[in-house]
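WARN retry 2 of 3 for item q-0093 after timeout on previous attempt; input resubmitted unchanged.
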Amino acid sequence: MQELDPAHAVNPFVKWVGGKRRSLPKLMRYVPKDISTYVEPFVGGGAMFFALKFKHALINDSNPELMAAYRVLKDKPYELIELLKTFKFDKESYIAIRSWDKEKNFKKRSDVERAARLIYLLKTCFNGLYRVSSKNHFNTPIGKFSFEPKICNEENLLAVHDYLKRNDTDIRCCSYVELFKEIPDDAFVYLDPPYAPISKTSYFTSYQSQVWNDNAQRTLAFFCRELDKRGIRFMQSNSTAPICFELYKQFNITTLNAKRFINADVAGRGDIKELVITNYDIESVL
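OK item q-0093 returned
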């Protein structure tokens, strides 16, 4: 198993829905130690990615703003830092920057501007919650803070830059199924998808415009079975919804107590139960 080394780990540069920062000490117990190529198809804030040791990495997410930020941090960190330093925390500035994605030519803004906007919004919005409307416009309100949020954490941004460069990281933005043929047989794949809802009211996938339903979970399970056929080791985090037990009954399933890190309802945070699904014997990595 891999051990969490605080001196080695880099902090994620943004919070993300379903982030695993608080669950890492428990999750790392199930991660193989001998990772050559690390693949994470739903990287989000990258808590797991930034905590591991490997030689090569392929990270992906379907959110173009997020992955643009990863690329900028890898290739243009100093430009990003300089722009972030000019952003102010007040309601007028927040609303103006949040509204950029309503501009006709938003996609023509530079990658540095878009990356800075994402980081700024997630540092200053309510509960660090990335949420979009049906038109894919960011619509989380400004947050309330007892102290002014640190918009530009220069030290950590440079640490992220160094990590991305040092660990030979390939950054993608596509559907995870498109990665299948590119995943080498000796890879370790960690999947942290939108969770299957445990009740009819618990769907929370509005951090992107797509909705993950039961069919999406079945497609993901098929993807995992295909990985298994190739002998590729995978580990998945998901909810304790009955469909997960059914879809992955041929694999190893462990239940963990985990911490909610971001939730739209403050009262809904706290300990929850989650599944760890692997296609390898967990005892072999302990």
